[in-house]
């Protein structure tokens, strides 16, 4: 997907999110995010888009983005619309390759923000449909496959430059049966001490690998079913797991992200 395609996806999925969220009571529980109600869900996407609009607009450090005051529930949809317009304007005003701050060492450019925010809007559109009790709509398979790739490459692959990855020899393959995309994973352990916070890490990790000849486990399914499963918005019933099922659970546990 190119930069403009991500911007179109961001605009479309946020508009769908807003339309569906408007049909749910503000105090309705969000099944996929039990600690949130519908108002919290609206506010979350609003805050996220507000923050990244400022970053994409040229703010160089996250500490320089002032807090956004949370409005009364009845004004949340209006504030979201304002922030969506601001985010799209900021992203369209710059080239995809231009530098901007990111929490990811590999994400310090505008195109990364566009991709991240497109998939942020998409997965929270699913949350809005779940809280509203409507059918979860299915995106194009290529979009879903890109969502799987983003989860694996942006959130889960590798460790920070100050950390170490120790391969433990276990491997897994993820296959999107409708697009032909596939990802090979090596599991291991991430250890290290953050130079910023001083926090000490010793936890499960993975590293994407070139296509391996053999895998301990293979997970197959339509790209959208894989994307929903990785994001915790659906169980694995629609997927086929061959080999050691504990490795599928290990992958899913690493992807516990709101």
Q: From the coordinates shown, what is the CATH architecture of the largest domain?
A: Up-down Bundle
β-strand percent reads 15-25%
Share of helix, binned: 40-55%
Per CATH, the class of the largest domain reads Mainly Alpha
Structural domain count = 2
Order of helices and strands: HEEHHHHEEEEHEH
Count of DSSP H/I helices? 7
Backbone shape: globular
Distance between the first and last residues' Cα:
24 Å
Word description of this protein:
This protein is α+β, with helices and mostly antiparallel strands and 258 residues long. It folds into two domains: 3-132, Four Helix Bundle (Hemerythrin (Met), subunit A), CATH 1.20.120; 142-254, 2-Layer Sandwich (Nonspecific Lipid-transfer Protein, Chain A). Helix content is 43%, strand content 20%. It is built from seven helices and seven strands. The strands form two sheets. The protein has a five-stranded mixed sheet. A two-stranded antiparallel sheet has the order 1-2. Helix 1 packs parallel to helix 4, helix 2 packs parallel to helix 3 and helix 2 runs antiparallel to helix 4. 36% of the residues are buried. The model has no long low-confidence stretch (mean pLDDT 96).
Which characteristics define this entry?
single chain, 258 residues, alpha+beta, Four Helix Bundle (Hemerythrin (Met), subunit A), Nonspecific Lipid-transfer Protein, Chain A, 2 domains, five-stranded mixed sheet, two-stranded antiparallel sheet, 43% helix, 20% strand, globular
Condensed summary:
The protein is of the alpha+beta class.
């Amino acid at each position: 997907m190119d930069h403009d395609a991500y911007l179109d996806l961001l605009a479309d999925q946020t508009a769908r999110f807003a339309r569906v969220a408007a049909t749910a009571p503000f105090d309705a529980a969000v099944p996929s995010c039990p600690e949130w109600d519908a108002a919290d869900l609206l506010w979350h996407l609003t805050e996220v888009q507000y923050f990244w609009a400022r970053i994409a607009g040229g703010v160089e450090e996250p500490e320089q983005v002032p807090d956004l005051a949370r409005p009364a529930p009845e004004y949340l949809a209006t504030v979201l619309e304002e922030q969506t317009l601001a985010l799209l304007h900021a992203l369209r005003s710059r080239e995809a390759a231009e530098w901007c701050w990111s929490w990811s060492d590999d994400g310090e450019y505008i195109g990364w923000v566009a991709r991240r925010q497109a998939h942020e809007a998409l997965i929270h559109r699913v949350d809005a449909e779940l809280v509203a009790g409507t059918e979860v709509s299915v995106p194009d398979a290529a979009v879903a496959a890109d969502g799987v790739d983003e989860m694996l490459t942006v959130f889960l692959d590798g460790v920070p430059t100050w950390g170490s990855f120790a391969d433990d020899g276990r491997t897994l393959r993820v296959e999107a049966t409708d697009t032909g995309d596939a990802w090979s994973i090596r599991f291991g352990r991430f250890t290290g001490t953050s130079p910023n916070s001083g926090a000490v890490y010793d936890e499960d990790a993975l590293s994407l690998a070139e296509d391996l000849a053999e895998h301990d486990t293979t997970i197959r399914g339509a790209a959208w079913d894989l994307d929903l499963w990785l994001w915790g918005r659906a169980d694995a019933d629609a997927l086929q797991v061959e080999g050691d099922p504990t490795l599928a659970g290990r992958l899913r546990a690493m992807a516990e992200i709101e």
